[in-house]
Amino acid sequence: MTLEPRRKPQQERSSRVVDRILDAALVLIRKQGTKAPTTLAIAQRAGLSVGSIYQYYPNKQAIILDLARNWLAVFPTLIAARVQAPATVATFRRALHDYLDEIAHHYLDSANLMPVLEAITLDPGLKHIILEYDEKNIALYAAWLCKINPELPLEDATRLGHVMMEVGHIALTIAVRKNHRTFDLIKNDLETMWLALLLPHLDLPDPCSSG
Fold this sequence. Notes:
Elements: H1 12-32, H2 39-46, H3 50-56, H4 60-83, H5 89-109, H6 114-122, H7 127-148, H8 154-175, H9 180-202
């Protein structure tokens, strides 16, 4: 089964059509839960003909896969924005809190995509899509930590970034299945875990305190 888009949009009009297709698919997934919407349902929701859909995607699976790619692509952008921000331990605490708020809502808004991502992870032919984003996110986490503490070895920063990513994904995947109160509690627990993990590596000794 072909899962790649038939063609990439080259013009603004084509991009708008693809956006309509993906937006419609995401709305239907949110409504229907884990059941993938049909190509006909996506076309009707988008106000397009089925033929228009097939100009860009060979099947509904390819649409869902593109949605997963778009979902994954949010994380490098959000982390990279923090890497560019002022880097101190104090600003890191606030930046981490704000970042966690953003990604938590990203999970919550697309909770029904989680089974799709799990399926991709288990598919040997598709797993590389997840891994590419994982590696990018880990590298950006490491860059963020190294900017705050230039003395932190890259190997350690990379290991910490890997733990942040894995623990964060597991915690938020669990959280989206709970009620809103439990979701918020798990999000707060995750922030506590991240800070406990990271601060010992970022809080540099004060040279003025040595006697």
